Each structure stands twice: as C-alpha cells, then as structure tokens.
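User: Hi! Is it possible to get a structure for several chains at once, not just one? Here's what I have:
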Amino acid sequence: MGAAPRAAFEITFDGRPVPALSGQSVAAALWAAGILAWRTTRVGGRPRGAFCGIGQCHDCLATVNGRPNRRACLVPARPGDAVTTQEGHGRAGLDT
Amino acid sequence: MATVERTASTSPDVIVVGAGVVGAACAYYAARAGLDVTVVDRGPVAGGTTGAGEGNLLVSDKEPGPELELALLSTRLWRSLAELLPPRIEYEAKGGLVVASEPGAMAALRDFARRQAHAGVTAREVPGERLRELEPHLAPGLAGGFHYPQDAQVQPALAAAHLLRAGGDRVRLRLGEEVTGVLTGAGGRIRGVRTRAGELHAPYLVNAAGTWGGDLARLAGVALPVLPRRGFVLVTEALPRVVRRKVYAADYVADVASDSAALRTSAVVEGTPAGPVLIGASRERVGFDRSLSVAALHRLAAQAVRLFPVLATVRAVRAYAGFRPYLPDHLPAIGADPRVPGLLHACGHEGAGIGLAPATGLLVAALLTGGELPLDTAPFRPDRFGAHSACGKEANHGA
Amino acid sequence: MPDSTPEAEGPGPWCTTDGPTPDTHGPGPAPAPPAEPCDLAVIGAGPAGLAGAVAASGLGLSVTLLDGADRPGGQFHRHPDPALGAARPGALHHDWSVFTGLYHRLTSSAVTRLTGHHVWTVVRDGDLWAVHAVTGPDGDGDGDGDGDRDGDSDDGAGDGGRPVCVRARAVLFATGSHERHLPFPGWTLPGVVAAGGAQAMLKSGLVLPGRRVVVAGSGPLLLAVASALAAAGARVPVVVEASAYRAYARVPRALLAAPHKLVEGAAHGAALLRHRVPLRTRSAVTRAHGTDRVEAVTVSRLDRHWRPVPGTGRRIACDALAVGHGLVPQVELALGLGCATRRTPDGTYALVLDGVQATTVPGVFAAGETGGVGGAQLAYTEGELAGVAAAAHLLGRSALVRTARVRELGRRRARLRAFADAMARAHAPGPGWTRWLDDGTDVCRCEEVTAGRVREAVADYGARDARTVKLLTRAGMGWCQGRVCGTAVACLAEAAPGPRQPPSPERRPLAAPVPLGVLAALDTEETGTRDPDPDPDPDPDPDPDDHPSHDTAIATATATADITATTATATADTPAEDSATATDAQACSPPDEQ
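Assistant: Yes, the chains can be modeled jointly so their relative placement is included. Here is the combined structure:
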C-alpha cells in the first residue's frame, strides 16, 4: 500500500493472526484483514462490526484481551492484542 | 382497546386527567366497574413521573400505617394484573433484599421488620454469611439483611400503556391535549374540563396529574400542596442477571420519611428483564430543576459499587431525572374533594406511584360507583391540609 | 482478503511526499489538568475548537482544550497516526494547511491540551463551570496509561478510565456533529457502514470496507466520501442521492456567497468523473441484500416526498455500502446547561447563538456544527469568533468584539451559514422515506427494535413522541442512546393521530458512557443548578421539493455548481439574519430524550 508504516505487528482475532500497523484502531486492523463483523447482537445473535467509525454508534463493540464492550473504532491496536468475537453483552461470566 | 381520537358522541361518565400509571389504573378500574372514561393528558402516555420511574412495587420500605396498607393491597392487585396484562409489562415478583453494613443498622432493620410483620409484611432475616446465597455478587462483610418476598417490579410505562388498553372500549384517550380550565355548574359541581381542543363534559373529574396535580386543583379552585421531589436514576449497559432482587441499603428507609431537604441518597440496585441494571432513588427538593446533579450520580454509583463491587467496570449509559409528587405528610391525596362536588384526587404518591396505582384506582372506582371501600381512605383526604398549606391563598379562594 | 487495503494502482493520495504530517501523536498518559480553574474550557479539538482555543489563548486567557481523540483535528481533519507513515495525509482533506497552521499555533501556545478525554457532562459549579470527563481511548480503560489491558482489574477507576474535572470561568462547545441515518431493510448487515464512518476509517486507518462500494444517502458528504473511496482504490459503482441537486439552483445567492464550497464541490465532481462514478439523484438504496455481509443493494427511484416509486428497483452488486443522510449537531452537553435551540432547515436542532457565538446561557459559547452543520470553513470562522468573544466576556473588554477582524469574521459567518442552510434545505429528508421500512426492519440497531414495534407503540399504546416510543419499546435506550435511530423513531412517532407536537431536541444527561467506578471515584460536592429548559422553536411546515427524479451523471453536480456560480454573480452578500431563522424545516426531526 501507499503508506510507509513505521511498524507492523500482529494481533489475533479469535485466535488467528491479523497484521496491524502502529496507530491503527482495532477496527481498522480487522477491516484491513477483510473482517467486517466481530460481535453478535444480544437479541437476534446477528453479526455486527464498525458502522459509524467515530465512536458514536457502539456497533463495533469488541472483546479485547478479555474485556468486553471496547469500541474497536477508537481503541488502538497494540502488539499481541487478543480480539475475540463478542457475544451479546459480552459478560456471560457475570450471570447468576 | 383504548382508541386514540375517537369522537365522543356521548359524554363520558368520568374524566381522568393524567395518562400516567395512576390515571391508567383509575381508568381501568372505573371502566371495569362499568363507567365510560376519557383520559386526557397534555403529553403522551407515561410522559411524566411514570416514564421516569424505576417501577418499584415495594412494601419493604414502608412504615406500618396507611401507606403500607395501600401498598399491601396494591401488591395483591399487581399480582392479579400481571395475570391479565401481557408479559411485556415485565412484572417480576422478585422480592427485595435490604442489607445492613454494620450490626447497629441490622438491629434497626430487625426492629423495623418486626413492626412491619404485625401489619402483614413478610420479612425473613438473612444473616451476613448467607447473603451471597441470595445475591452472589454482593460485597462481602455485610452485617446481614432482610428478604422481602412481596417486593416486586414492573416496567412502568408499559404497565400504564397496557392498563389503559385493558380498559377496553370504555376507555378513550385524548393525548396531547392540555386541560386549561375546569367547568363547574350549579353548586360548584363538576361539569367537565376545557382543553385546547374544546370542552369535554362529564359529572366527575379525577385529578391524576401527578406532579402537576396542584396545578389542576388550582384550576378547580382548590388548593392541593403537591410539590416536586427530584430523583435521579442511573442506567447501566445491558448485563446478564447480575442482581436478582431489589437490593438496597438500610438508610433508604430513614430517607423516605425524611423531612430533610438535603440530598440523602441510598441506591436501590436492581436488574431488569431487558438487561440494564437500574440504580435509583436519589431524592432532592430543588423544584422543577432538571439539571444533572453530579453529586447525586456520584453517590448512586458509589453506593451501588459498594453493594456490588463487580459493577465498578460496568458503564452507566444513561441517567434520567424525574419529579416525584409529594404532599407535606408524604401520603397521597386519594378521594372526593368536599370543596368541589364531583372532583376526586388521585395524586401525590411521591416515589411510590407505580406501586400504589392499582389500590388507588380501585379506591377511586369504588368512590365513583358507591362500591365497598377495601380500606379506610380518611388518611388520604385531599382537603386535609386546610388553608395553611403551601397554596393557602388559593385554598381560601376555593373554599 | 485485502479488499480493505487501499491498492496502489497509481499513487494513493497519501503517498506523495509534499506536506508533512504534524506530529500530532497524543502524549501517552493524559496530563493531570490544572487544579486551578482556567478561564476557558474548550470542548472538542476539531476546527472550531482549535480556532477558539488559539484565539482565546492569544488574547491572554488560560485555556484548556479537551477532546476524546488522541490527535486534534476532529472528524473533519481526522488523520492517520504519524506512526502509520502516511506521507501526505492532507490529500484527503480540504483546508489541511489551515489545520496545520492552527495546529502549530496551538502547540506553541499556552493552551493545556487534554487528549483522550471524553466529556460526559458540564454542570454549573458556583460561579464556574465544571467539565467532567473520563479518560482513555474509548473512555473505558488505559486511562492510567500503564498499558494494562488484561481486563482482570476490578478496581474500577484504575483500569476503567479516570475521572477528570476541569473548572472554568467560561465554556466553548465545539462538539461537532454525528451522522444522520434513515434505516432500510438490510442496513444492519456487515459491510453496510456509515458514509462518514467509511471516510473516518479511511482517513485515520487507511482502510476500506470493501472493493466495490456503493455510496448512498443524501448530502454533500456523499461526494466527498465517494471521491475519497475511489481515490483510495475502491470501485464505486454509483453514488445514490435522495434529493435533487438542482434544488441548489433555487438558492443562487447563498451559493454565490460561498465560492470556496463550489470549488470543493467541483473538486469532488472532477474526482468522481475521473473515476467514472455515476450519480443517481432522486433515488435511494431501499434494501441491502446478503446473509453474513452485504452482497447487493436495491436502488429505487423516489418521488418528491421520498417515497420509493414502485417498479423502479434495480439491483446493484457490491461488497460494501456507505450510507448517510447528513449530519446532526451534537448539542447534548449544551442542552444540559439549558442553552436554547433552534430548528434548522433540515429538521435537526442547533444551538441559538448571537452574533459572536454566545449561547443563551451567559458564559457559554459554541462554534461550528453545534450551531448548525456548516463545514470546516464555518467552524474555523466561528471558533475564532467564539474565542474572541469569550475573551471579551471574561476580561470585560467589549472592544475586542468591535474590531475589523471580528466584523470580517461575522460577514464570512453569515455567508457560510446561508450556504449551509441552503444545503440543508436541499437535502432535508422527505417524509415518505419511512415507506422504505418494512415492519421487520430493525430501526434501533442497539436494542434491535423493529419498525413494526415502533409503529405499534404509536398506533396502539399512546406513544406520540420518540421519548415515549423509547419507554415502550426500548428504541434509543441502548449504547448509542438514540444517536443512530433518533431521527427515524421521531419520524415514525409523527404518524401519531391527534394534535401534533413539535419534536424536541434529544436530551442525553450522560453525553458518553461512564464506568460506575469512575462515577464512584468522583470527588465532588457541587450539585449543579441552572435555568429551566428552553422551549424549542415551533415546528414549521415541510417544504417538499417538487423536482422530478433523475438519473444523472456526476457531471450534473459540477454543472450545477457552475450554473449557480454564474447566475449568482450579480448578488451581494447574504444578510446575517438568514442563518438564524429556519422557516421550512422538514417534518421529520429528532425527538426529546428527556
């Protein structure tokens, strides 16, 4: 590509390696890998990914390093980040 | 079903002003008793305090006395309404859990529960070490608590909307229509109301205008010192069932009866079928000021996190303010107003309107039809404040 | 797979070598704000906020500039992290040199910059304003800057962001706008993205949502998005615009007054021509097809009320759709302080501002999109005006706002506002768009509430406004708090029978999600009081455009620009008052959120 990135590294999405560039958001790294959906909705279980791109719509919520509901379009990718498909509210572990 | 905008070919038997949960309950029980009812509201259904409430149907927070009697009756009525209305109203007989952080507060709770038991409230003591069997995410180290199985919850706006619909053809809705005058005839008797859309005639008028009940009373020429008490509710992101019951700290009890105008918050923490946890019940007397109180939100959040540490990383996505209508003695006004024949009041329920609505509606319907009263309404007499009330001038004028 | 990586068939716009990227990287851990109150808190570091902060600082005010992002520029000058090595990010931006100039003035000024600060409320605090923010890239973590992202922390305030309170004698809201959306069946499919979202991801991350991207909706942003996508290597089979660009011809005076806008429009037009991107006006994407991602869209003709014309649907294959219907001013923070609003010509709500950007609340100023969507040029102009006005207010030197420079800024503002109003009028949604919806379409993306349920709440359960619809259906109660579905829900609520009440601006007491641990960690005793809520402007009648539908090549847009430029040459400056009164707002607009 046209840019001359200073640093490239890997993150993982559901365990598989995804290249990322320093300064890219998690969402941008996923898009660059052709991944458009990284969560399923709470009610219908439908796939979702980035929509508004500026942190407003919250459609891009992802579980990053085990922490749910991170806005992937805002959170910068960092080496070794583990992004996992978030199911629903992403907090099933809290269910009583 | 309740039909919006049907031209009334015949006048209704009764006009209910206010399409909140209390107005809806009055309309429902009046219709069930055979009366034709028109509900008038300047806004939509549940546009006022009802839409800003958490939906608490509580007996646990009430001292023995007239309000508790009303609450116990309502608890029974809500149970049967829950059979009748669709599940969408999110009625949950989930019970309440009142906790005490230290032994002194626990002793006070124990005394309170004992007195409530004489009035018909079921309360079961839960020692500190057993609390987490009921609420697994509760903070460790609490002194103990009381479980109140009669406490329940409902989604207030849906409950109001479905109550109105359950009234059937006898209930008509006129929404977006503000009442600008009360019409009286010979002997000062109620003849109807004037709205921005024209006159509407009926021999009876029920004031279920909630926080604005004092304004409607004034239009009818009488004083009813309804005042607003601001409450904030914090709403979290959707969660699984983290909190099973209505959980709150013991100082809530003292707070409800408090005459202090200072902020005294105790967080009632509860899950909802839709997912979010509600944290509510800050109480301030600041008039109709809707501006956000960061101090109130801070206290709500701090108390919720103290009760449920797991909530610390959970995000609040919304906060809303509502105005709880209260009268000087913290009891609602329910019943006929002797100063204006045909005028009945059903307002001033403070933060308990959702819970007290069915009993209020049942009482109003009984008063309208001459039916048997299920409890003594004397403590709720609307003219009990006399001329020395907050609206003293108007009271003299109306008398 | 790399369908999202801009291809270098011919150099991409960012790979030329002229024009350096300012090193706008955030400073890592956010610095602690000064404990002493500052003179002016500026919220938002886009064009308006930058200009305001620089102007106020230049006049001697102590200024704190807060923004959620870690780099200044806002959405308009959203740009790649310098680490991405984009050699010429300005190629994706107009006014890049204005931005870099201001940015250099900012860095050499005494302005305190708080990046990664998401402001969630502003309240009165005695004689001051308390600006409350939560730190972190998304307001939920890394606020301590220690890189702890293992998610195992349960101490709330530490890993979950940090509360910050800035106290200031005056506030400048430069909070910009967000995109407006009109739902249609299939719009929740992956690959359907906001038009501004596609642009934002391209600007900051240099990525595309697909290789073959249909651009649709309404408003001038679409052309910019389409040309940026095409320049980045995407194939754009069509730009679908719901209104008729010839509506612009009805406002020649305003158009003339803003030649800069015409140049910008012409540049996009030329770029699209070069990439052979056709423009279909009076048309809309009325359905997106696909199972796990979008595979095609149906484009239908619209009548003058934006109702789809039966039988005109045409299927167009694509692997992404970028869609949006203009912008909505973000005014919730100002609304919380009781600032009055006005209804703009396209039915959104903007703040009421005087000639020097003061809101109706003394000591509170606003600039840029918060006063009505109008673009970066207007934002720069208003930002500078607001900075000067705040200085005049705080220093008690009214002469500051009587200079020739301020008069010139005022004239420029009037011209640009008039142009913005003309554009808003031309692209205002027609009431018939709700015909695109079938009852199964999710209107609220967060809570998955369908159009059918919203209609039921209105028809059967006494909902008459978006707030009641929300209470009865949960539409607008989710993470985004109705920012995405607000317009749609308000439009559906307008189907309520009986006396019509004008919709109100959307209230959001929390302007951003805040971890409970952060709220619990606040150290505050102020209660916050203010004047009662303002009344919104009355709701005027819609003014549907009656031009017929047309399939048009992109050449039309540029031609329109030329024509209007010519016809308008004889006209003088547009009076300032034109911008302050909106008389033909459309029926559909956002509701009260309470």
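Residues 79 and 317 of chain B are 31 Å apart (CA to CA). Residues 1-8, 259-265, 388-399 of chain B have pLDDT under 50 and may be disordered.

User: Great, thank you!
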